[in-house]
Amino acid sequence: MEFTKENMRFYIFMRCKLSESAKLIHGTLQTVCGDCACSYQTVCRWVKDFNEGKESLSDCPRPGQSKSCVNEPIMASIKKDIDEDPHISVRELSDTNGLSYGTVHTIITEHLLMKKNVLSQVKSAINEQRPKVSTSRTLLLHDNAGSYKARATAQSLRKLGIQVLPHPAYSPNLAPCDF
Question: In the CATH scheme, what is the code of domain 70-111?
Answer without folding.
Answer: 1.10.10
